[in-house]
Design brief:
The protein has about 260 residues and is of the alpha+beta class. Helix content is about 30%, strand content about 20%.
Length: about 260
């Protein structure tokens, strides 16, 4: 459980020990809670890691008030990959799932977001605001213009997700100049229900909180979903153009959502 009065530190990972703590949190959420897996997951050490980790910046939220192993004090994490770092690897993480040509050809500064997670006891509280605050500062510092990344629905049963996926397709599809598309070999249409047949209230309740947060900020989704059986998720590509945020949204965003 979250401490009654958490004592948060927000920082970028600087040491192997801090990175391992971030990977431990990811293991607790993505493997133990959500049933995911992956080629480099270390079950013995309880670490969720992959080949991209050395190239990302890892933004971690630590609760110093927890009386436990320091490895388990990281309660929130965001993984951040700038376009200059992606060039070193030869790709963005999400290019295995999405064709990002339209974003890469824009000539604008890109930041890929991923592996965002919080321990259950910290969801819905101030922890997410702290992470957003750190992300906003990072975006400002690096003059990022477009943020994107995959976000997930739990489970791989597309039929069960047809209402929320269709709502995103009809109401929040990215404009053509930002419309990343699921790779053809894995393309899963999100246009599964006619717009007039969507129960909008019920469908929006089924959209994960993180995706809703991006949509409130003026975010869009790409064309098509990716069904990730290894991670037991159905992924959508979220895209946010900092230039297109209206004045009110931009004020909220630059304050880290602390309105």
């Amino acid at each position: 459980m979250a401490h009654v009065d958490p004592d948060f530190t927000l920082k970028l990972v600087e040491t192997p020990e801090e990175l391992a703590a971030a990977q431990r949190l990811r293991y607790r959420v993505f493997v133990e809670e959500l049933g995911g897996g992956g080629a480099l997951v270390d079950h013995a050490a309880r670490l969720e890691k992959d080949r991209f980790d050395p190239f990302f910046d890892h933004l971690v939220l630590i609760d110093n008030a927890l009386e436990c192993d320091p490895m388990d004090r990281v309660v929130g994490v965001y993984r951040l990959l700038r376009d200059d770092k992606a060039a070193e690897i030869g790709q963005f993480y999400s290019e295995d799932e999405y064709d990002l040509s339209v974003l890469k050809a824009s000539g604008r500064k890109l930041l890929e977001l991923g592996r965002s997670c919080l321990l259950p006891a910290y969801r819905g509280g101030s922890a997410m605001f702290h992470l957003w605050n750190g992300l906003a500062a990072y975006v400002f510092e690096h003059e990022i213009e477009i943020l994107f990344g995959v976000a997930s629905f739990h489970g791989t049963d597309v039929e069960a997700l047809k209402q929320p996926l269709s709502l995103l397709h009809h109401r929040h599809l990215a404009p053509e100049d930002l419309r990343a598309r699921a790779q053809s070999a894995h393309y899963q249409s999100m246009n599964l229900v006619d717009e007039g047949e969507i129960d909008r209230r019920k469908a929006m309740l089924e959209v994960p909180a993180l995706i809703k947060a991006y949509l409130r900020l003026g975010g869009f989704v790409g064309d098509g979903a990716y069904v990730d059986h290894a991670f037991n998720t159905t992924d959508v590509c979220l895209i946010m153009d900092t230039e297109r945020l209206n004045a009110k949204q931009k004020a909220i965003y630059t304050k880290g959502l602390q309105s």
